[in-house]
Amino acid sequence: MTDKTALTPARHTAPPARFSHGVRKGGILQVAGQVGFGPAEEGRPPQPVGPGLREQTLQTLENVRAVLEEGGASWEDAMMVRVYLTDTAHFSEFNAIYDEYFAVLDQPPAARTTVYVGLPAGLLVEIDALAVLG
Amino acid sequence: MTDKTALTPARHTAPPARFSHGVRKGGILQVAGQVGFGPAEEGRPPQPVGPGLREQTLQTLENVRAVLEEGGASWEDAMMVRVYLTDTAHFSEFNAIYDEYFAVLDQPPAARTTVYVGLPAGLLVEIDALAVLG
Amino acid sequence: MTDKTALTPARHTAPPARFSHGVRKGGILQVAGQVGFGPAEEGRPPQPVGPGLREQTLQTLENVRAVLEEGGASWEDAMMVRVYLTDTAHFSEFNAIYDEYFAVLDQPPAARTTVYVGLPAGLLVEIDALAVLG
Q: If we measure between CA atoms, which residue out of A126, A81, A121 comes closest to residue A99?
């Protein structure tokens, strides 16, 4: 019996409900949907880091990375990245940021699905990831 | 070679196409998107249990649970819960119901992603889940 | 340490960003979101095969299949199929095409979640899949 471990990066804001930012069990690591919230600040509600797609995307990817690393993994272990944007007009700009962020990887990049959905006001992007370790 | 097993809770309505309510292969169990349909009734098309978010959410979570249990798993084994709502205005109420439902768990709660999409008329929520056993 | 392998069917168009059409690591194979693009043609941007749901759906399913096969898997190994449609009015027609496509399978069909989202102009359907081998 392998334990399921919750992955909670120290600077992450608390999830808005009873879910984990990430969980690992054996070689499987799942990262919850991350958004562009900056580091938690005592007594202040979570806020996206900037009004723009670029700032939010980079922060979101860093938030995913923090969860991966909390579980002993890295982007190299990511199998799938799910991207939720809010506007099809953001696709090219998002891809440029994504390519820049993943310019250096020691393994093939993860697969990805990108769809356009509604998100809470102020959020332009949400990303989750599945990783396999070992 | 491990077999893939279909998971079909006895009281579930038949899927509207050639897919399984859940499948398990080795230690991986995937639950298909569940909605708030009540138990199947002979000669009656599937119906959501109530017009409200609360009834549909609780029924949907129970439907996911039934598939997990059909595969020898429980919420304790869930790694990821994907929540599809139709209205961002439902987020707080949904989270309150979710927290109440998961008040008692012997393992860390699953990760979660919540996005807002279109669903067939009458449905307010759809949920699927990935579990890892063993 | 198991390697992560990128899966790149020869006739697939290049992904629009730094992601893989599919990756396999050990027994886990993830297919990226596929759309109804026909085979790559030198010097021509990717194009969906037809204006209609039927042509796009069949091509999309074939594109998923090509990635599965590139990784030594088949639809028999698929655990989860995620379907993104753009219009709830397409649900019945889509299900009929899906059932026809999966009429013959040697294993129980995969689980499935279907939601309605925005996609880039001209695309009516996007599909990804998770498979477990062995």
A: A81
CA angle A110, C53, A111 (to 5 degrees): 0
Q: Any bridge partners for residue C73, and if so which?
A: none
Of A116, A113, A50, the closest CA to residue A88 belongs to A116
Residues in C whose CB is inside 8 Å of some CB of B read 27, 76-77, 79-81, 88, 91, 94-95, 98-99, 102-103, 105, 107-117, 130, 132, 134
Residue A1 has pLDDT above 80, yes or no: no
Query: DSSP state, A17?
Result: S
Q: Which domains does chain A have, with CATH numbers?
A: 4-132 (3.30.1330.40)
C neighbours by CB contacts (3+ pairs under 8 Å): A, B
Query: Given this model, what pLDDT does residue B94 score?
Result: 98
On the question of pLDDT at C1 being above 70, the answer is no
Residues of chain C contacting A111 with CB distance shorter than 8 Å: 19-23, 30-32, 128
Beta bridge pairs of residue B28 = B25, B132
Percent of chain C residues past pLDDT 90, beyond the cut: 96
B36, B49 contact by CB (below 8 A)? yes
Residue B129 CB partners (closer than 8 Å, separation 6+): B30, B31, B64, B68, B78, B80, B81, B82, B110
CB atoms within 10 A of CB B91: 16
In terms of Cα–Cα distance, which of B46, B33, B18 is closest to C95?
Answer: B18
Give the neighbours of chain B: at least 3 Cβ pairs within 8 Å.
A, C
B130 DSSP β-pair partners: B30, B80
Q: What is the DSSP secondary structure assignment for residue B129, as one 8-state letter?
A: E
pLDDT score for B23: 98
Structure tokens at A112: 């990805």
Residue pLDDT, tens place only, C27-78:
999 999 999 999 999 999 999 998 899 999 999 999 999 999 999 999 999 9
Does B113 sit within 8 Å of A32, measured CB to CB?
yes
Q: What is the ipTM of this complex?
A: 0.97
User: What mean pLDDT is reported for chain C?
Assistant: 96
HEC sequence for B12-35: CCCCCCCCECEEEECCEEEEEEEC
Of chain B, the end-to-end C-alpha distance in Å amounts to 18
Query: Comparing C-alpha atoms, which of B45, B73, B85 is closest to residue B131?
Result: B73
